[in-house]
Amino acid sequence: MKEPSHPQAERPHRPGSDRVFYVCLGLLGGTYVLLLAATVGADLFYTTPGHFWRALQSPEIRQAIRLSLLSCTLTTLLSLWVAVPIGYLMTHVRFRGQALLDALLDIPIVLPPLVIGLSLLILFQAPPLRALERVFPVTYAVPSIILAQFMVAAAFAVRTMRATFEQISPRPEQVALTLGCSRSEAFWRVVLPSARRGILTAATLAWARALGEFGPILIFSGATRMKTEVLPTTVFLELSVGNLEAAVAVSLLMIIAAVAVLLLVRGYGLNATLNRPL
Amino acid sequence: MIELDHLTLRVGTFVLRDLSCRVPRGCHVALMGRTGAGKTTLLEAICGLRPVLSGSIRIDGRDVTREPPGARGVGFVPQDAALFEHLTVRQNLAFALEVRRWPAARIATRVEELASWLGLRLLLDRLPQGLSGGEAQRVALGRALAFHPPVLCLDEPLSALDDETRWEIAEVLIDIRRRTGVTLLHITHNRHEAARLADPILLLRDGRIESTPVSAA
Lengths: 278, 217
What we know:
By secondary structure, chain A is mostly helical. Chain A has one domain: MetI-like (MetI-like fold, Orthogonal Bundle), CATH 1.10.3720.10. Chain A is built from 14 helices and no strands. Chain B has a single domain, classed as Rossmann fold (3-Layer(aba) Sandwich), CATH 3.40.50.300.
């Protein structure tokens, strides 16, 4: 049967311009980028090189920088230490109560940071941990900073590693098993190298989270100068005594440190991807 | 030789029940069937990648039903080749031998041998991401054959290739069988491919295996 002719159907269809679509997306996303740039710009214009220099000369701030770098790095290593095995197990093993465990792992992401600090403080009041503290002081000492940062940063690292392992095809691992690998050999030789971009992302995220952590540290570690003072604590302390210039200078320092680490790690990640042979 | 004896497999609610067949040593068998018939599931069970509910799998007379994949002597080539992307072609070919802790000199000799045979000599120091589909399949075949397995399981190894490359790899499979005497179990949807390469065709239908001579396929 002949299809009835429609004069309108003969006209070539002309889809709308892609440019309008991209401009709309750009406008929507651009507002956020603008806000970000404006806040950094506001900090930059508020401070002067003199403020910045004076902040860097302060022994308290120098100590806070050192402690921040040390605690963030240790927190990152600890976060990866738990995130890689949890991420792998959660994607490769099915077990009863998995949904509950999944929710538990997300608690540090959704809880207010102050609550995490409070929970840690209460936990370390329990008799066994109190006994431990007599030998190895944690609360209001440097280990408490690392523990507080770790509680939050590890949750983000776990999420990232889980997404990473979910995206990796199981086929190469299965082939490795048929080629004679045990499960652990296949993990070390095939799965882990395939996950290295994810590991790098998890490390970056954990480091950045740890650097910005303040709430749990304030509760669990206190804000004692030259002892438990990390950069966010410095901003808080300087603000509390009305030294806005120093607070802004330290904030800028944190922005610079975070951007430098992100660029460094991402640059290395890109190189590692481009030059893959080990 | 592959022998399946009353094999029952379950994946979720899907069940392959009471499968029995015998593939003689050195035979190239095409495993055919509709999408979702359970061909890959069966192949994975033979490779040891899926647990068996009941029945047994024997490779060259040895019961491997409860053996781990690496102890079965089955080389596996999946559809997408699944090369190890972080390793060079040379390292991919040497993988099974390094796992088996062969001496370095013996590994080097075997890799050279495989590379010459499969036309991979110029690619040895390349990474898999730059290889064409045909090259990747040849590397996957070499990697699976490196440790001299008596059985090679191929999951649609030619399906993602263009016509010219497909027949080129088909020739490689014929050559592999001639040179090594390996038993080949090969999943395919392509009857021409099956007719060109296989002796009998095993048809997986309604959860059962039917054997068909090539001419009748």
